[in-house]
Design a protein that fits this description.
Blueprint: H1 2-7, H2 11-16, H3 19-34, H4 40-69, H5 74-101, H6 110-139, H7 144-147
């Protein structure tokens, strides 16, 4: 509801949440590659990762909307947002992965580490492409007047 209030619509939060299933790809793949079971700590890692990945989507979409308010065309606003916000997003993902490496071989917290590492890799790479693309497809008619 906070995101709905901030962006003043219901569509943008749904676009932001597109990062959630993208994280699941990396989590499942990571558990499979490590030969590990999906445990309760894996689920905790998934929940933590969802917050981080939605935050990444917020960074991108908020910057897009800032650029749109400056009357920048939608395509250019998306390109600007992704190029400017990529470094902070990669730094966040890198920090999560480095922090999780410490507990990767712990028998209790291994699932947490696998979820964080695998999910961060997949979701970060995919979020940088998928979220802006979905945003463009959803919002292009609304901002068509800037393209002309």
């Amino acid at each position: 509801m906070l995101i709905v209030g901030w962006f003043q619509n219901f569509v943008t939060p749904i676009v932001m949440m597109a990062a959630i299933p993208l994280a699941l790809i990396g989590i499942i793949l990571g558990h499979w590659l490590m030969g590990a079971f999906f445990t309760a700590t894996s689920f905790i890692g998934m929940i933590a990762l969802v917050g981080i990945m939605v935050r990444n989507s917020v960074l991108i979409i908020d910057f897009i909307e800032i650029r749109l308010r400056e009357n920048i065309p939608l395509k250019q606003a998306i390109i600007d947002a992704v190029s400017v916000r990529t470094v902070p997003i990669l730094l966040t993902a890198g920090t999560v992965m480095i922090g999780a490496v410490v507990i990767l071989w712990d028998p209790i917290f291994q699932g947490l580490a696998i979820s964080l590492i695998g999910g961060a890799i997949a979701s970060t790479l995919l979020t940088l492409f998928v979220v802006p693309t979905i945003y463009y497809l959803v919002e292009r008619k609304k901002w068509k007047h800037l393209e002309e």
